[in-house]
Design a protein that fits this description.
Elements (H helix, E strand, L loop, with lengths): L5 H11 L4 E4 L5 E4 L1 H7 L9 H11 L10 H9 L7 E7 L5 E8 L5 E7 L1 H22 L9 H13 L7 E7 L2 H8 L1 H18 L5 E4 L4 E6 L4 H17 L13 E7 L6 H17 L5 E4 L2
The protein binds guanosine-5'-triphosphate.
Guanosine-5'-triphosphate binds next to strand 6, helix 7 and helix 8.
Length: 301
């Protein structure tokens, strides 16, 4: 190929390319665009159409570039403050046909602007599924698989956060343990035991406030974090839970079957560590068990 043919060959290759390519003049009038660009932005260069016109028409028709703005003029003003200010810039942009492109803008010596884009939709989908997989794995690492409540690790983390957050004070914590759960397992089977655990989780969620933290921290042991509640209010919530549990009949095949639980409820003290707080709650729970179960033992600290 002779060197004289190079510019035409370059232009022809851009014309045929699936990657959008365009040239804007110093006044931002669209002077040349390949087929891919025209299709992407639903435009034809006519010697007058400016980049702003192009964006206005895209915004009005809902085609071409995705423009998430109610006020297109404000959007144009903001975008214009970035367009063509640097010799080169590149950014991701969304098209209404679902494609995601990586657009590069190069300012040429005479002030013209060369736009070249490539379709990065497959990359984006990869990173999206990676992001989704990451979010799913994170959720799984924080969740108790049987009940769907927070697991032990997440429960303890929620407790640490609540202890460190002044808005969570006064702060109460309850440790709850199902009564004679071993007997339930032994007499009705492990599957029935699992159903009871799931039922307890539901009763816990139904009895507590949206801001309360509910976690399963052991086999049949649960942690309830009650932010912005002094012992009195927290006691009402835990009593409500125990009352609901008494009423519950979780096994369809055993309609008479009911179960109970015991609770140790404590109010956190300033400067107290989560370990000491949980030890106090555990001691209160032990007292509730020793005193006959199906009750709450409180410790104001
Ligand atoms: N079905 C089921 N049982 C479990 C699970 N995790 C632990 N357990 C059982 O829970 C029972 C706990 O029994 P214990 O700690 O002796 O206490 P308890 O029988 O509840 O007696 P009290 O706490 O003194 O009222 C054991 O039989 C465990 O096998 C689980 O995920 N599913």
């Amino acid at each position: 190929m002779s060197e004289a043919l190079l510019p035409q060959t370059l232009l022809a290759s851009h014309e045929a390319s699936p990657n959008p390519a365009a040239l804007f003049d110093a006044q931002d009038v669209l002077r040349w665009a390949n087929k891919a660009f025209c299709e992407a932005y639903k435009v034809q260069p006519d010697g007058h159409l400016t980049w702003s016109d192009m964006m206005r028409s895209n915004h009005a028709s809902g085609q071409g570039a995705v423009i998430e703005a109610d006020d297109i003029e404000a959007w144009l003003a903001a975008t214009a403050s970035r367009r063509g200010k640097l010799p080169h810039r590149a950014f991701e942009a969304d098209l209404t046909d679902g494609r995601w492109i990586w657009m590069s803008e190069t300012v040429l010596p005479d002030g013209w602007l060369m736009c070249l884009a490539i379709d990065i939709t497959p990359l984006r989908q990869d990173s999206r599924s990676l992001r989704q997989a990451h979010a799913k794995a994170l959720r799984a690492s924080q969740t108790d698989a049987l009940t769907g409540l927070a697991n032990r690790r997440q429960g303890l983390q929620l407790l640490q956060q609540a202890l460190a957050e002044s808005e969570a004070w006064p702060l109460c914590v309850a440790l709850l343990d199902l009564d004679h759960f071993k007997q339930i397992n032994d007499s009705l089977g492990h599957a029935a035991g699992d159903q009871v655990l799931c039922d307890f989780a539901r009763q816990m969620l139904a009895s507590t406030r949206r801001e309360d933290g509910c976690a399963r921290i052991g086999g049949e042991e649960f942690l309830l974090i009650l932010p912005a509640a002094a012992l009195g209010q927290a006691g009402v919530i835990v009593e409500r839970l125990l009352a609901r549990v008494r009423q519950s009949r979780p096994l369809a095949e055993q309609p008479e079957f009911g179960y109970r639980c015991s609770a140790g409820l404590v109010e956190a003290q300033w400067g107290e560590s989560s370990e000491v707080l949980l030890q106090r709650a555990d001691a209160a729970l032990y007292r509730a068990k020793a005193a006959g179960r199906d009750r709450i033992e409180r410790d104001a600290g």
